[in-house]
Amino acid sequence: IMLHSTLALSLLLIAVSSNLAMAIKKEKREPQTLSRGWGDEITWVQTYEEGLYQAKKSNKPLMVIHHLEDCQYCQALKKAFAENEEIQEMAQNNFVMLNLMHETTDKNLSPDGQYVPRIMFIDPSLTVRADITGRYSNRLYTYEPQDMPFLIENMKKALRLIQTEL
């Protein structure tokens, strides 16, 4: 009987440890291709339409980042954005997030032209918040790496405006 229970116990241990190994492996996720380097812990939506749907459903604002792979300003902004813990945390928890490398057909997303990088906020009521602008009068929705505190303020503003206006 002793041998039998030892065998059963070792089989149980093997089963538990292989499940544990699988759980650990699952925890260490593959970097998500949709993040494109803007933040692998963030859940990104794939399309603008999906973003609008999720924003309405979750009652969270949608944040749309327009960028291009070969744009040095976009790369610099992406690095600052990805390294900023407060931005990453807010993006993970309070926003529906989308980064796009092509223009949408929605002209409301390019109120002052189609330049990159450009960050726009859309309310859960599906209103484009053209009133949430960056620091530059010639490109209202652009941010530079040193503007992260400003972007944080605008993210907070996008969250505040939902509560007060809906």
UniProtKB/TrEMBL annotation:
<comment type="similarity">
    <text>Belongs to the AGR family.</text>
</comment>
<keyword id="KW-0732">Signal</keyword>
<dbReference type="Pfam" id="PF13899">
    <property type="entry name" value="Thioredoxin_7"/>
</dbReference>
<feature type="signal peptide">
    <location>
        <begin position="1"/>
        <end position="23"/>
    </location>
</feature>
<dbReference type="GO" id="GO:0005783">
    <property type="term" value="C:endoplasmic reticulum"/>
</dbReference>
<protein>
    <submittedName>
        <fullName>AGR3 protein</fullName>
    </submittedName>
</protein>
<dbReference type="InterPro" id="IPR051099">
    <property type="entry name" value="AGR/TXD"/>
</dbReference>
<dbReference type="GO" id="GO:0002162">
    <property type="term" value="F:dystroglycan binding"/>
</dbReference>
<dbReference type="InterPro" id="IPR036249">
    <property type="entry name" value="Thioredoxin-like_sf"/>
</dbReference>
